[in-house]
Predict the structure.
Amino acid sequence: MSIDWTALGEEAVDLLRRYLMIDTTNPPGNEADGATFLAAVLERGGIASEIVESKPGRANLMARLTGDGSLPGIVLHHHIDVVYADRRYWTVDPFGGVIRDGYLYGRGAIDMKSTGIMHLAALLAIKRARVRLKRDLVLLATADEEAGSLYGAQFIADQRRDWLAGAEYAISELGGIEAHAGFKAPLGHIVISEKTGLPLALTAKSAPGHGSMPWPDTAPNRLIRALNRLLAAERPLRVLPEVQEYFARLASVLPEDQGAGYDDLQKSLADAAFRARFLTNRLHAAMVRTTFAVTMLKGSEKSNVIPPEASATIDCRMLAGDDPQEIVGWIRRVIDDDRVEVTITGEAKVPNLSPADTELYKALADTLRRRAPGAVVAPEILVAFTDNWVFRRCGLHGYGWSPFIMDEGEWHRVHGNDERLSLENIRAGARAYVEMLLDVAGA
Ligand SMILES: [Zn+2]
């Protein structure tokens, strides 16, 4: 078996450039355009694929390289859709496929067309090299991840479970290697779980009236008081064992003083000064608590009418072990107003988790250490949501992983402006991806 790594790297850059030029902003998604592109590239490489639309234009694609069946398969999944890019704040066309100063720019360069191209390039390389496989490799491209997965991962789980047949693992987005200037060593992340959403609404009711004669108890006033109480209250902080392990590993790469107290976070958080300092980091704060973000507010339709009803949408994110009914009861007690209703407005997704000691997890960790020698690898519970939650519910061990090395500045471009990925990451990432797959699935 021989693979020309230089050629593979250039192929990955070219494929990603072309993939980024397809506008799959969700809404509306238009994932069909992305799926058609992937299918054409696969076909030229001699790999058959199947496209199914969950709704016109909302396409999902599956391609399978078959192994000898001696071990269960691996699903490599990515979402075709991307979030909106506000052109006013970009220095390049977000769908122009621009390469500048060693970086490829475009919406989806990190989240997550790049990972999709790693999967695509790996399948093409393995097929060309005629490698015998112990495991099936299933490439899955999904719609709608950025807007709730209903027409993508959830559709596949409900309607096309056969696409996952014979698989035990799933690999998808995020993870990767954080290399900050101040770190003593790079920190590798492997996502094993994510916090999940509990959609909530607070609705206050009272009599309507004229804006010229307000009184203390109007619906908007009650709502504002209830929200104030909710935001001022604090649920007990909870350090999950996996989160403790993450912070212990993080401490080992931080400059001496910065990681103090991370070896026993639950205990350290009992100290008021430590706690106040720790919670100023939004990401770290979200890792140890159930969060309540007020995201939408609704009152009157007219400026001079006091409405009979005012409501707030709360984006609540749960930690493993949270109970939706207990959270609702806690909010009712905290706001202490029986004329403000607390309701769960959608599906309460209960968090799920994949173990950090599987054969695949070990191969992912080894690959990160090869890619960034000296890297410390930590399991991560993501504070945001991904399709892996859906596929874990289908019985797969799902991990978020990428072979990309990035510093903080690059990460901030995700869902932001001038999203980009270095050509070095694309080239070396493609090789790392293939080597990882040969590690776990090569015969
Ligand atoms: Zn994503």
